[in-house]
Specification:
The structure holds 2 protein chains of 2 kinds. Chain A is of the alpha/beta class. Chain A contains 15 helices and 15 strands. Chain A has 2 domains: 3-161 and 383-400, Rossmann fold; 164-374 and 407-441, Dihydrodipicolinate Reductase, domain 2. Classes of the chains: A alpha/beta, B alpha/beta.
């Protein structure tokens, strides 16, 4: 099985990407946004890698343009769509193909989400953008506001948000299944998950300067990030571990694993965040994310919901097994525990997959409430199509940016805390600043390289 | 704290006559004690002890130095180059590579310092104890729980003076912590956090690495087989010796074994902690090398112990962090004030918190009315404290009745680190009740030719 096939199986794609009934066109959103064609005309930025999986899910639509800085990485896509115009530079793609494009999928590395996505938004194109929405909090907030103002439809690529299980979790929590929740533990085995896509570099910056492969434009891959020589430790696959390009295990998996608690508990903005990490070698800790970290968030009380302490563990660290667990029951590689006054819920990654009240006797006794939150067709496998539906119906997609933006901000706050570790950072969400750390504030908004604008 | 009262009370015994009571003791004793120890008639000893050191190239040289007011009569090290400087410093001491030969030949030894790598502590110390020698053994007391249990019992039976080399146990600081907590300075304590940045930081050593495959020759002046002692055989490699053995499971006990004994003493003493009910660990992993995972300890770990309630004291959760991880920053800590990177202790009480020996915030410390100093203080060094015990003084501060059970608790955490599952502990039967695999690690089968 190829890597991409594995990735697709992992995401549950094989379960079904049946063609949907095309809804007739009508006027959507803001004044500048045209209704999409029956076969929506999609451009993809970052057409290789995860973008290929997104394309497969939308194959009933029409792909009108591709951009990828690396022909080799995008080869599978290009082979399948030999007639679609292809570009290395997404800016040139938009220049030339703008009139044909109705919607855009952005699946580049984290550090170039914003520049590509913002261009699409400014041109009034519907937008599907991979998670985390952006590389920095400032970018997230600006993109979220711009997308709203443009009246386009938008979806973040945390496909688990379209799953039935996350809706069930929301219904159970609202039903008081485990009473008020005051503590949440979440964890991921990344950056040392053991698979090529779940192992990130933890290292000093490479010193050697290998030649850039003939198929790729390295300068474009860097985009707004500070220039450095090409190295295979960054691309195509290993960028997630580097501060300048990725957002580490938390950025990668947080948008999946924190998603259920964020929704069900209506967490919103935390008041503080603090991290402790395994990092201590300066040449490594100034370049890549740590081998393991623990990030501790505090959320204030919300309505009749009590204050919540949320803890993130990565690098195979996990919370202690709760006392209510049956002997022998273990925590999986990725997952979450919600601790309520009256019980504990455990779930895995991607939506609230594997959702259970623990112990099993309590699960069996529990009378599940009626399904009141509308379901997305085909669950997480239907995430991209839910976006297509949104574009065509003019009704918001499940993980639209008004939800996905704040979720990403929460995740990125933890990423900043890892870089200013062992310090409780007090967060003023409304004003987008830490009130007690200038050092942390410097990570909210990146400095762009000449030629790129934020 | 439990204090062994050896040498006190009515029992009048010479330090060497202990041996007569010890099963398996061999050899006649030609030296007759010239003074009487213990009891009402006790006189200050005028005689110097005859001390031998085993494993003196590293930490051992400091221990020997602290004892140089006594007669250093024999020094033993498997690597004579590594120990060369120490040999030079004590020209009167006879040199050995094999402690078994040393103990056989040097009948005049009163007391032995053992500062070898962890995996040979027990074999060397037990040989000395069985001959009725007093022992000072570096921390952790042993490599395995079964060794700690056997050694504690053997020392008690032999009535020898013992001391584990966690020198902080002789300090003023730990006594203040115990007195304050027991006086209720922070109310009831239900949670304790301990941490160290090792295997990183100033004293870093390699972990999460695979076993070397090359087989360089051992240094000419070193006996590699003796260095291995009871551990399974493997070829010599500089990846283990000197000083890098701590990260290797067959030889060391990782950051927890190394630093745990330095800081567990605070909660163990202050909260009177016996054995835990359960222990569980989560750790980082080195991927793409399953072998590295089974050879060494991980680069970072977090170990959670549950101790049952005892008397008026509620149950206690104790969490250990290493590799740079730290507990949550307490609310009481002032902005900008840092928790130590190196090795720290945080007690969480229902009426306050004690961080690294100080109530927090500092204003609370300043207001604090210190309780009376009720615990006996120790004058001089940790080694000196042991020497006094050898000469009939009170039991040393970290004698094995205290250090043995504490070492067992620490080592139970290393088993959790190695097995990665929640383990339930039956201390009376010295058994992990829910995992046969983990239970295998409670003891160790010694290599042929070696006995405990």
């Amino acid at each position: 099985m190829s890597r991409i096939e594995k990735e697709m199986t992992r995401r549950g794609f094989m379960r079904g990407a049946a063609a949907i009934t095309i809804v007739p066109r009508y006027v959507l959103g803001g004044a500048g946004v045209k209704a999409p064609s029956e076969r929506m005309q999609i451009a993809v930025v970052g057409a290789g890698g995860m973008g290929y999986a997104n394309i497969k899910a939308c194959e009933a639509e029409k792909f009108v343009a591709f951009a990828d800085v690396d022909d080799e990485r995008a080869a599978d896509t290009y082979k399948q769509y030999p007639d679609t115009p292809r570009y290395k530079d997404f800016r040139k793609m938009f220049d030339k193909e703008q009139k044909n494009i109705e919607a855009v999928i952005v699946a580049t590395p984290d550090h170039t989400h914003y520049v590509a996505a913002m261009t699409a938004v400014q041109l009034g194109k519907h937008l599907y953008c991979q998670k985390p929405l952006c590389h920095s909090i400032y970018e997230v907030r600006k993109l979220t506001e711009a997308a709203k103002a443009a009246g386009i439809q938008h979806q973040m690529g945390n496909q688990g948000h379209s799953d039935d299980t996350i809706r069930m979790l929301c219904e159970w929590i609202a039903d008081g299944a485990i009473g008020p929740v005051h503590e949440v533990h979440t964890w991921s085995d990344r950056p040392v998950g053991g698979d090529p896509w779940s192992d990130f570099p933890i290292m000093a910056r490479p010193k050697e300067e290998p030649l850039v492969p003939a198929t790729m434009d390295w300068d474009l891959w860097l985009g707004p990030a500070k220039w450095r020589p090409y190295h295979r430790e960054y691309c195509p696959q290993r960028w997630r571990g580097w501060f300048d390009f990725g957002t580490g295990a938390l950025g990668d998996m947080g948008c999946h694993i924190l998603d259920p608690a964020f929704w069900a508990l209506k967490l919103g903005q935390p008041t503080s965040v603090e991290a402790t990490t395994t990092h201590y070698e300066p040449v490594v800790m100034n370049e890549t994310y740590p081998r393991a970290s623990i990030v501790r968030y505090e959320f204030p009380s919300r309505g009749d919901m009590p204050a919540v302490k949320l803890v993130w563990y990565d690098g195979r660290l996990k919370p202690a097994v709760p006392e209510c667990f049956e002997r022998g029951r273990k925590l999986g590689g990725n997952g979450a525990l919600l601790i309520g006054d009256k019980g504990v819920i455990m779930h895995d990654s991607h939506g609230a997959a594997g959702l259970r009240i623990v112990p099993e006797t309590k699960m069996k006794e529990y009378k599940q409430p009626a399904a009141t939150i509308p379901r997305v067709k085909n669950g997480s496998a239907g995430h991209e199509r839910d976006w297509v539906r949104a574009c065509k119906e003019g009704k918001a997609a499940s993980a639209n940016f008004e939800y996905g933006g704040p979720l990403t901000e929460m995740v990125l706050l933890g990423v900043i805390a890892m870089r200013v570790k062992d310090t409780r950072l007090e967060w003023d969400g409304a004003n987008m600043r830490f009130t007690n750390s200038d050092q942390a504030n410097r990570f909210i908004k990146p400095e762009y390289r000449d030629g790129w604008t934020l | 704290m439990k204090r062994r009262q050896a040498g006190k009370g009515k029992e009048v015994i010479s330090r060497r006559s202990f041996v007569r009571h010890t099963a398996g003791a061999v050899g006649a004793f030609t030296i007759v004690p010239r003074y009487v120890l213990g009891g009402a008639d006790m006189k200050p000893p005028s005689e110097k002890l005859n001390i031998a050191g085993v494993g003196i190239g590293g930490m051992g040289k400091n221990n020997v130095k602290a004892c140089e007011g006594e007669n250093i009569i024999a020094l033993c090290d498997v690597d004579w180059d590594h120990a060369a400087k120490v040999f030079e410093d004590y020209p009167g001491a006879r040199k050995y590579k094999d402690y078994r030969v040393m103990l056989e030949k040097e009948k005049g030894i009163d007391a032995v310092i053992v500062a070898t790598p962890d995996h040979t502590h027990a074999a060397a110390a037990m040989a000395a104890i069985k001959l009725g020698k007093h022992v000072y053994v570096q921390k952790p007391m042993t490599w395995s729980i079964a060794e700690a249990r056997a050694m504690t019992k053997a020392a008690r039976d032999a009535k020898v003076a013992t001391q584990m080399g966690n020198q902080g146990q002789s300090d003023e600081n730990v006594r203040l912590v115990v007195e304050w907590i027991q006086a209720g300075a922070i109310g009831q304590v239900r949670e304790v956090h301990l941490w160290t940045n090792r295997p990183g930081g100033e004293w870093a050593w390699p972990q999460a690495v695979a076993r070397p495959t090359d087989t360089p020759a051992a240094p000419a002046n070193m006996d590699w087989d003796l260095w291995l002692g009871p551990a399974p055989s493997r070829p010599y490699h500089p990846a283990y010796h000197p000083s890098k053995w701590r990260g290797w499971r067959d030889f060391g006990t990782g950051p927890l074994g190394d630093m745990g004994c330095h800081i567990f003493n605070q909660p163990v003493w202050a909260l009177n902690l016996d054995a835990p009910i359960s222990v569980e660990a989560c750790t980082t992993a080195l991927v793409h090398s399953a072998e590295a995972m089974t050879e060494t300890y991980p680069l970072a770990s977090m170990v959670t112990y549950q101790f049952p309630a005892k008397g008026d004291r509620p149950a206690v959760k104790l969490v250990w962090y290493d590799g740079g991880l730290k507990p949550p920053r307490p609310d009481e800590l002032e902005q900008g004030r840092k928790m130590t990177e190196d090795t720290g202790v945080l007690f969480i009480g229902d009426k306050g918190k004690l961080l690294e020996g100080r109530l927090i915030p500092e204003s609370r410390m300043n207001e604090f009315e210190r309780p009376a100093k009720t615990l006996a203080r120790i004058n001089g060094t940790h080694e000196q404290n042991w020497i006094e015990a050898c000469k009939g003084g009170p039991a040393a501060s970290s004698n094995f009745d205290f250090a043995g059970p504490m070492t067992e608790t620490v080592l139970l955490g290393t088993i959790a680190v190695r097995t990665g599952q929640k383990l339930y502990w039956d201390p009376a039967n010295m058994k992990i009740t829910n995992s046969a695999d983990a239970n295998e690690l409670v003891g160790r089968k010694y290599r042929e030719g070696w006995t405990l």
